[in-house]
Amino acid sequence: MLNSMLEHQKCVLNGVKEDKVLFRKELEKSYKWLQPSERQELSKWLNDKFNHLYPDAINSVLKVKN
After folding, report:
1. Helix (H, G, I), strand (E, B), or coil: what is residue 17?
2. Is residue 50 a contact partner of residue 58, using CB atoms and an 8 Å limit?
3. In 1-66, which residue ranges form alpha helices assigned H by DSSP?
4. Which of 26, 33, 36, 40 is the most buried (most CB within 10 A)?
5. In whole numbers, what is the pLDDT of the chain averaged over residues?
6. pLDDT at residue number 65
7. Total of domains in the chain
8. Rounded to whole angstroms, how far apart are CA atoms 35 and 6?
9. How far is CA 14 from CA 11, 37, in A?
């Protein structure tokens, strides 16, 4: 069950990738719910998978939350 919330949030973010506003909203929620180690893993995953789509949203959420 380790990282189950992380995996859940990855699925959610993957599911809303077509809507920038919803993507950012879910990303902000993810950072509230995840533990620091999970946040680091999510950051790497986001940069690999979505940085080409929403670099501004990702960077602003990561910068504000870190």
Report:
1. coil
2. yes
3. 4-15, 20-33, 36-49, 55-65
4. 26
5. 90
6. 54
7. 1
8. 9
9. 5, 20
